[in-house]
Amino acid sequence: MHPVHPLKPFAIPSDWSPEQAMAVVDLLDELREHIWARYELQLLEAYREHYQPPRVEPPLAARDDEQPF
Is the pTM of this model over 0.90? Predict the structure, then answer.
């Protein structure tokens, strides 16, 4: 499993035009699509391992001849 890295802030220019901001968003969307197309199965497995709660085995049932505490 890959380590989880906290988001590191980075500077986003405050003087972009709406068109420039949209171009960056479009680029990121396309990049995401390409990554998913190439690594879909591996990414799904990584997400499953990371976000699925750990499996807990149910306790063994007490035997009939044992008295509970």
Answer: no
